[in-house]
Design a protein that fits this description.
Keywords: ATP-binding, Glutamine amidotransferase, Ligase, Magnesium, Metal-binding, Nucleotide-binding, Pyrimidine biosynthesis. One of its GO terms (molecular function) is ATP binding. This protein has 19 helices and 25 strands. It has about 550 residues and is of the alpha/beta class. It folds into 2 domains: about 5-275, Rossmann fold, CATH 3.40.50.300; about 290-545, 3-Layer(aba) Sandwich (Rossmann fold). The protein has a 9-stranded mixed beta sheet, with helices on both faces. The chain is globular. The structure holds glutamine. Glutamine binds next to β21.
Length: about 550
């Protein structure tokens, strides 16, 4: 049975709970333990799949096809443990399960209440797979005191009470604001936050205090005394230059030791941190610099492309260079020349996206990269737009486009070289969708196998011809245009195992031009950069030496 670590936050939001959880997971692994990380989100959406990336950031997709919170991306990047659909839950999902059960009559006519029905559902969720790992780390979204979070806090309180003594601990993240006028770190908000937790029956074992300034011994003692935690369990979290320094930084501040102490694990196994020392060294000592443009629509909120940004950083680490990413709004050159906006970058990446807005700009970005021989990586919509560009400009299909945009506009304007996929094979089963399935969870989601053509550039990059990658899309490049496009140099170098769905295209006569229907960024890790990102950054570096 796993030991449980519940991670909560207080004082303000955005303190980096997800990062602290992920870093702690990595540190426990470094001491030889197996871990799994989970996120419990208090919002009422059933999953983040239909939430705007402007508001909620990227949707992280798991191998088993769940659309989850971007914190699961942090968890995977730090621990390498593939997240599952059962690692993320929202109030919306919990309530809808409870209400389904009520409609089915499962509760035998009882009055359905938050306690015990909702809390029991949360507790059952926490127990899933608990016998598979040494530690289960469960992060509660939001901050203590939020109305919507209450059922989760009550559930974890009950859960720790139900389990044998010593099986669960609570770690609480707070902020120590610095008052420049008095030159002091203030501990009062932390004290209040802990009081709030205590008032709902939870006594934290560990406090992680975010602070811009070093925490003086005197303040640490004060926090320990007033918040009823041991002094060594008051752990400082200072601002870091790179998130990948977090495991080492938390280790130096004693977080993993404090956790093991809280569980009474003695003697503590010694940690092997060599992986993180190497990662830190690569981040801190780059030997060059490349400039990459991400041409997208959600450029105002960088979190919308979180995993892509991180995967590029990993690609940089693999090549020992710093990747400077600049976000270029595709709409800027929907109607004008792309060149002035894209000259000067060593490579161009067009990420995934939904809807027509900005797509003419993305098509121009693909054209610019293809004709100017600038390395191009098109991801999902970025691949589809590269195909549209090739169809228009190489294969004489001047009105080529995606059915997605015709559907959106409610009229037919394009020759659909990218069409709405309604039937496909997943494993041994057929999946079917209707034309009007446009809500959450109706896409081709999760891991699918692909077969790469022997001798293709991608087969060389991956070092294999059999891969699996994560998908999240409704539309697909139409195989009917394969011959026409291949004759003009756009090769279909990766296909679904049944040969029906194009997974990868590449331009043969180009230093590096690849479009992928899937999301490789979701599987990249700092200690194991994704091959496509590793090689894309290498190509950017090579290009930087030419210009
Ligand atoms: N909108 C496109 C589709 O649904 C691309 C999706 C994506 O980029 N993730 O196929």
């Amino acid at each position: 049975m796993a030991r449980f670590i519940f991670i909560t936050g207080g004082v303000v939001s955005s303190l980096g709970k997800g990062l602290a959880s992920a870093a702690l997971g990595a540190l426990l692994q470094a001491r030889g333990y197996s871990v799994r990380l989970r996120k419990l989100d208090p919002y009422l959406n059933v999953d983040p799949g239909t939430m705007s990336p402007f508001e909620h950031g990227e949707v992280f997709v798991t191998d088993d096809g769940a659309e989850t919170d971007l914190d699961l991306g942090h968890y995977e990047r730090f621990t390498g443990v593939a997240a599952r659909s059962t690692d993320s839950v929202s109030s919306g999902r919990i309530y809808s399960t409870v209400l389904e059960k009520e409609r089915r009559g499962d509760y035998l006519g009882k009055t359905i209440q938050v306690v015990p029905h909702v809390t029991n559902e949360i507790k059952d969720f926490l127990d899933i797979g608990a016998d598979e790992v040494d530690f289960m780390l469960c992060e509660i979204g939001g901050t203590v005191g939020d109305i919507e979070g209450l059922p989760f806090f009550e559930a974890i309180r009950q859960f720790s009470h139900d389990k044998p003594r010593g099986q669960c601990i609570f770690m609480h993240l707070t902020l120590l604001p610095y008052l420049a006028a008095s030159g002091e770190l203030k501990t009062k908000p932390t004290q209040h936050s802990v009081k709030e937790l205590q008032s709902i029956g939870i006594a934290p074992d560990i406090l992680v205090c975010r602070s811009e300034q070093p925490i003086p011994e005197k303040e640490r003692e004060k926090i320990a005394l007033f918040c009823n935690v041991r002094k060594e369990a008051v752990v400082a979290a200072y601002d870091l230059k790179s998130i990948y320094e977090a495991p080492l930084a938390y280790h130096e501040q004693g977080l993993d030791q404090a956790v093991l102490d809280a569980f009474d694990i003695s003697p503590a196994p010694r940690p092997d941190l060599s992986v993180w020392e190497d990662v830190k060294d690569r981040v801190e000592h780059p030997e060059g610099d490349v400039k990459i443009a991400i041409v997208g629509k959600y450029v105002q909120l960088e979190d919308a492309y979180k995993s892509i940004k991180e995967a590029l950083t990993h690609g940089g680490m693999a090549n020992r260079v710093k990747v400077s990413v600049e976000w270029v709004d595709a709409e800027l050159f929907d109607r004008e020349d792309a060149a002035p906006h894209l000259e000067g970058y060593h490579a161009i990446l067009v990420p995934g996206g939904f809807g027509e807005r900005g797509t003419e700009g993305k098509i121009k970005a693909a054209e610019f990269a293809r004709t100017r021989k600038v390395p191009y990586l098109g991801i999902c919509l970025g691949m589809q737009m590269a195909v549209v560009e090739a169809a228009r400009n190489l294969a004489d299909l001047g009105d080529a486009g995606s059915e997605e945009f015709d559907h959106e506009a409610g009229k037919k304007r394009f020759t659909p070289v990218v069409y709405h996929l309604k039937e496909w094979v997943q494993g041994n089963a057929k999946v079917k969708r209707k034309a009007d399935d446009d809500k959450g969870g109706t896409m081709r989601l999760g891991a699918y196998d692909a077969v790469l053509s022997a001798g293709s550039r991608v087969a060389e990059i991956y070092g294999t011809t059999a891969i699996d990658e994560r998908h999240r899309h409704r539309y697909e490049v139409d195989l009917d245009y394969r011959e026409q496009l291949e004759a003009k140099g756009l090769k279909f170098s990766g296909m679904s195992p049944d040969g029906k769905l194009p997974e990868i295209v590449e331009v043969s006569d180009h230093p590096w031009f690849i479009g992928v229907q899937f999301h490789p960024e979701l599987k990249s890790k700092p200690f194991a950069p994704h091959p496509l990102f590793r090689d894309f950054v290498r190509a950017a570096l090579e290009n930087s030496r030419l210009v």
